[in-house]
Amino acid sequence: MDEKSNAVGLAVEITTAWLSNPNTRVAPEDVHTFLKNSHAALVGMIDPPVKASTTQSEAPEEYQGAVSARKSLADPEVIISMIDGKPYKALRRHLATHGLTPETYRERYGLKADYPMVAPNYSKRRAEVAKQLGLGRKRAVPAEAAADEAAASEPSPAPAPTAKPKGKRSTKASTKADA
pTM to 2 decimals? Predict the structure, then answer.
């Protein structure tokens, strides 16, 4: 009780100081409101209110999508984001800017696990380009490399001795050999 009665005194002092300022022009009914708000603020600082959420389990936030799931997939060229309602060809980067992963995005808006993150036509175009580039296939072995590998795997006969190439002999060596 001591602190609460002290709060009343402090609220009165604050209100008096506020009214003593020559630049303050207020109506008489506003003084009561100011005193009441000052007192409530001081009591709130002395005894902070207990949050109701600490005693109860917090319910997850319900997010309302900007568009329906059906409308977000209506156009095969783009996917409309449930966050802001804007069209995108791929959602991954957009989700990352909002701190979401595809899984959390699907969970937040109640979407199925197979909800796409890329527009269908964009996905087809990317797949075609990848096939043209040869991505996703095992590397084809060129014919020469295949022949070399086959030859290397067969046992080869011992190499025939080769004759040493004849070169100039020094005169000193020839005189010793002649002698």
Answer: 0.46
